[in-house]
Amino acid sequence: MRILVSNDDGIYSPGIVALAEVASGFGEVRIVAPDVEQSSTGHAITANRPLSYRRTPVKDFEAYRVNGTPADCVALGVHLWEGADLVLSGINLGSNLGSAIWHSGTLAAAKQAALLGLRGIAFSTPVDEQEPEFEKLQPHVEEVLRLLIQDSSAQLLNVNIPLNPRGIRWTRQSLRQYDGKMVLDKDPMGREHFWFTVVPSRQADEETDRWALEKGWISITPLRLDLTNDRELEKVGGASAI
Ligand code: MN
């Protein structure tokens, strides 16, 4: 198996090394990741300037940094590496749950794989002031990867792993609350500015990704690319012309 590893935290993030190390137990690994952090860039692609890549030492891995977004990295990585069959993204420093996954570059890398007909799996872990303990997360990443490779055919998956998890839960995306919020602040000159940031959500619905993380479970959410609202489409009588 050829496994392409990417992320949105940039090629120098400790999370990508941790993921690549686990992935190397499952197949041949190549890292293709952004040269600088691209968190919250979602599924943007670079269409108005050329992309280039440079070989970059990341432990003993064959690794390349790209002057682009996570989606660019996966598209270029797959283009240059014939036979790649699985794309892993992460491990992101920060969870990707609920509506936040719309903004997530981590998930976008996995999504780009699915758009290209490959399998994409995004891995994230919550962070506080401390850097995540990746050595402790790695056995859980390995367990999830084994489960997904052996027992699941889902093409696009969003995985969030808390530290010291109780076990694994299959979940759905939490949509009860949107956690993005504008927060007013002032610069040193007293002028107003804003942070578009994430505030903690409360009361997640049961069996959702957010609920699972709150309860200390690993959350695996199978996702799909089709955004069509089937109920609305049925209501108007299918795809007929007006
Ligand atoms: Mn990130």
Notes on the structure:
- This protein has helices at residues 14-23, 70-80, 105-115, 134-151, 209-214, 230-235, and strands spanning 2-6, 28-34, 53-55, 62-66, 86-93, 119-125, 156-160, 168-170, 180-186, 192-198, 218-223.
- The longest helix is centred in the middle third of the chain and has 18 residues, at 134-151.
- Helix 1 (14-23) crosses helix 4 (134-151) and helix 2 (70-80) packs parallel to helix 3.
- The chain has one domain (2-174, 204-228): Survival protein SurE-like phosphatase/nucleotidase (Stationary-phase Survival Protein Sure Homolog, Chain: A).
- A nine-stranded mixed β-sheet has the order 3-4-2-1-5-6-7-11-8, with helices on both faces. A two-stranded antiparallel ribbon has the order 9-10.
- The chain is α/β, with parallel strands linked by helices.
- Residues 8-9, 39, 92-94, 106 line the site of manganese (II) ion.
Structure at a glance:
This protein is of the alpha/beta class. The chain has helices at residues 14-23, 70-80, 105-115, 134-151, 209-214, 230-235; strands at 2-6, 28-34, 53-55, 62-66, 86-93, 119-125, 156-160, 168-170, 180-186, 192-198, 218-223.
